[in-house]
Amino acid sequence: xxxxSITAQASPNIALIKYWGNRDDSLRxxxxxxxxxxxxxxxxxxxxxxxxxxxxxxxxxxGIPTAGAALARVTNFLDLVRALAGFELHAKxxxxxxxxxxxxxxxxxxxxxxLALASSRAAGLDLDEAGLxxxxxxxxGSACRSIPGGFTEWLLGTGDADxxxxxxxxPAHWDLADCVAIVSTVHKPTGSTVGNTLAGTSPxxxxxxxxxxxxxxxxxxxxxxxxxAALAAIVEFDSDLMHAVMMTSTPQLFYxxxxxxxxxxxVREARAQGLPVCYTVDAGPNVHVLTEASRAGQxxxxxxxxxxxxxxxxxxxGGPARLLP
Length: 325
Ligand code: PMV
Hints:
This protein is an alpha+beta fold.
């Protein structure tokens, strides 16, 4: 145990093959494997100190003391670290994001990856990459993919012990950019933790799950061969397939808004004109538009001209979660 405060930094990630639905909600064991790209330039920094004499965990988010559901989720997560470390101390957690919350960038992924690294290290644990990824998974499924850097694959596994993310290619492997078209910053009505529990209510989910290894193979190969056309085809298909499940769940989850569709149409049009570009949409209305880094300027320009687009954020391919001095 280390009474000193330990600080870790992690990047969010964008899924290229989506995780949607769990086979075990409490362990967050996914219904299907997924592939993602870590996002450079965006990050969460989290400091953790385990304090003797503190009666409960405390949480500060972007400098603001926070209680309620956010603190309860952090406390549930810290219970896992307490169990691993074999003590009952409480922690002081301070977390900061350098990107806007509600921008369609999964802040829970970078948040729980940074929290897993900082809290376990501060507790005197020295977990390896797989161990950290498994721990981060328990906070938010997609967080397990923010432990290794670059292009990552979250292995389905057979249970808690072998469901974690591994790097399939380092950040320098392929210079891609994610241009995030912000069409709304309103907080989504149904977050992904609840959404994931509804996936099984769609009659389309079994077909989506059964087809996963085909999509994973196509996506992995496109990344390893740096084949943008192949990547574009499978990434858009996979995003549409997940949204088909969402739209046909009970209750229905419908995340797209009119500008979401306008961006998708503009991306298809730009691709038809020869630009290497494709879209993918998470559990919200904003659109992640992927391209080769050398074309990002052009992509941002055409995205800004789409009616309903308020802003465009740009990210490159990010590195692994790491400790800060
Ligand atoms: O990790 P969660 O519970 O935030 O779920 C993430 C779900 C999606 O972002 C929609 C897909 C994914 O694989 O990241």
